[in-house]
Every structure is written in C-alpha cells, then in structure tokens.
Amino acid sequence: MKSMINFLGIIAIAAIIGFTFAACDTGASPGGGNETTTPAPGESVDNPVTLVITKDLGDFSVGSGWYVLLQEIEAAGLYVNLDLSAATMTGTEFNPIPAINTGKNKIVSITLPDVALSIPYIRWSASAFQYFDKLQSVSGASIITIGSGAFHHKTSLTSVNFPSVLTIGLDAFLGTTGLTSVSFPSVSTIDGAAFAGSGLTSITFPASANINWENPFAGTSINTFTLTGSGSLSVIQNGRALVRNNTELIAYPTASGNITLENITSLLNFAFFYNHTLTGANFPAVTHISHGAFWGNQNLTSISLPAVTHIGNRAFYQSDNISEITIAANVMNIGGWHSARIYDFITHYNSQGQAAGTYTFVSGAWTGP
User: Fold this and answer.
1) Is residue 129 part of a domain?
2) Segments of the chain scoring below 70 in pLDDT
3) pLDDT value at position 123?
4) Mind listing the pLDDT tens digit for each residue in 214-244?
5) Are 274 and 242 part of one and the same domain?
6) Residue 174 lies in domain
7) N or C, which end of the chain is more exposed by having fewer CB within 10 Å?
C-alpha cells in the first residue's frame, strides 16, 4: 500500500484514507439493527474513487510507469475513475499494453493524457483496450487518431468524448453495444465498420467527413444522423439515411416496411446489413449494388431494380425470403455468394435470356417475367 500511495500522489492518498474509514463502518443503526451496508467508495463499480495522476507513464512497456500504476490499482482492489490528463508519457501514442490484464478491470472511466495524440491498432483479434472489462467512459482531449479495433466489443462502454479526433479506424467501436449516442465534431475520416453492431441510435459528425469503402454503421439502430457544416454528405428519410453526393446510399440502418428511393443510383457495401424490418424496396434509378448490400435481410420479400447493371458479391446473402424481383435486362455483372433462392433466380433469369421484368417465386420455383 505504501508504494501505491507514493506513486498515486496526494489525491490518491485521500481516496485510500476515505476508503479505509468507510470500510470500518458496519452500516448498522444505533439501535443495533441490521440495515443494509452501503458500499464504501471504490468497492463498487457504481461508486469508484477518482485518481488524478501527474506522474510519467513512460513508454508503456513492462516496468514503465503505466505498468506500475496498473499493478498498484490491482493491489488496492478499488474501482477507479482514472484521470491521466496531466500525466506525461514517452511519445504521443497511448498504448495501454493490451497483452496484460493487471488492474484493468478496476478502471471504470479513463481520461487520456493531454499529450496523447493517438490510440494504436494492435491486431485484428485484440483491441488496444483489451481487458478493460468495466470501462464505461473514455475521453481524450487531444486524440486525433483512433486506431482500428481500438474499442471493439467493449460492451460496458457508454460514453466517449474525443473532440479533436480526425480519423476513426476500421472496426474501432465494433460491437460496443452500450454506446447509444456519440458526437465527433472534428472527424474527417470514418473507416468501414467503425461502429458496426454497436448500440448507436444517433450520431453527429461533419458533412465533410470521408466515408471509406463500406458502411461504418452496419447492423446498428441509428435513426438520427446529424451532420454539421457543409460537404458531400447529407441525410434523407427524416435523418434516418445517410447519402453521399445525393445519389449514393451509405447507410439506412432502420429502414422499415416498403421504401422507395427515387434519386439513389448506387448502394455502398453493407448499406442495409442485417436489417430485419425492411420488407420491400424500390430503387428506380439504382445501377450499382455493392458487396453485402442486403446481407441478412430476412424479412425482405420484394425488390425492384429496373435500371441495375451491377450486383456485387453477397449482395443478397442470407436474404432467403425474397419472392418478387423486378430487374433490368441483360444484367451481366451478378456476383456470387447469395442465398440459395437468389441463385435459383439467376439461373431462371439467364434461362429467360436475361429479359427485363418482374419475376416471382411461387411453389418453390421462379416464374416470369
């Protein structure tokens, strides 16, 4: 305990002393009753102690100041709100040693050092914040790059604050089901699947942001895209759908029922990924459907594509209930890896000389046009 007090400083001393005194209180009433004992500060994830660290974290290697801090947190056994904003470190990349788990499951919130500019990509199978299993909140005033997979599957995470971030990497917040609303006022690049499978229902970012090759919001429940400033991005369908240059549909996570999008000419990869409420779609001007656009749309039963020229791989993968397709003539570019029913449709379409029209699935077979 003595080494912990020396390392954490005066504020930590106050927290530990407070815990010591509180731990001696049985919570019993003066009359000797058996009232419920209130957990002392730090004993519960709902009542963490605040630790403000001003020491040097070093280079994040084993034996560094950061490593020692994690050991001390583990030894104390207290849940903490960790404020590193005034801490120093070697370099500008905050790399919390993802290979070790010591002390990390006691950190409820963390404020990164003001000198930290980036969170690194580690590898596909491990996030930078691996083992932070109780982490609810994270912020970094100066962070400009969030690396790929940095927080993937941090299901406890409910709040993030990165006001200066410019780049959000691939899968950065993948599967963060506790996140429901976020704002990135300065972001300029959002990579594919950055928020896929998260709990988001709303998000705010600049209209000038660059969305890379696939839908960053696939499999979410976003019903409000809020864009700031001007740029190539805009919203349609009462803010529920995100488009680029007024013609390319990037994401429409909460599309439901039967929809008609008259001005859309192309669908980005995974535009409707795992949508379970869309039942019918009419795209009179769409020519290009990208990879996985309707992947997992189990309730989609009809689709109209009278102008289409290209259908990408897995565009209708696991979309097994489509029974009506309106399609253009001579669609030569139809990729693979669709549902069995779509494969049967392609066979029938080709047998009909790729004629334009409406095809229907009746009694286990395609007919038409």
Assistant:
1) no
2) 1-36, 124-125
3) 73
4) 999 999 999 999 999 999 999 999 999 999 9
5) no
6) 144-246
7) N
Contacts of 254 (CB under 8 A, 6+ apart): 221, 222, 223, 240, 275, 277
Give backbone dihedrals phi and psi of 336, rounded to 5 degrees, phi first.
Answer: -110, -170
288 falls within a domain? yes
Q: What is the tally of structural domains in the chain? A: 3
Cβ atoms of 62 and 97 closer than 8 Å = yes
SS (H, E, C) the chain: CHHHHHHHCHHHHHHHHHHHHHHCCCCCCCCCCCCCCCCCCCCCCCCCEEEECCCECCCCCCCCHHHHHHHHHHHHCCCEEEECCCCECCCCECCCCCCCCCCHHHEEEEECCCCCCEECCCECCECCCCCCCCCCEEECCCCCEECCCCCCCCCCCCEEECCCCCEECCCCCCCCCCCCEEECCCCCEECCCCCCCCCCCEEEEECCCEECCECCCCCCCCCEEEEECCCCEEEECCCCEEEECCCEEEECCCCCEEEECCCCCEECECCCCCCCCEEEEECCCCCEECCCCCCCCCCCCEEEECCCCEECCCCCCCCCCCCEEEECCCCCEECCCCCHHHHHHHHHHHHCCCCCEEEEEECCEEECC
Cis peptide before 113 (omega within 30 of 0): no
215: nearest Cα among 296, 136, 279:
296
Examine the domain organization and report whether 262 and 358 are in the same domain: yes
Amino acid making up residue 109: S
Domain check: are 231 and 263 in the same one?
no
Which pLDDT value is given to residue 7? 38
**Is the domain of 303 the same as that of 203?**
no
Q: Which two tokens stand for residue 328?
A: 């253009």
> Quick one: 241 and 268 in the same domain?
no
- Measured from the Cβ of residue 82, the count of other Cβ atoms closer than 10 Å reads 25
Domain boundary among 190, 221, 246: 246
Q: pTM for the full model?
A: 0.89
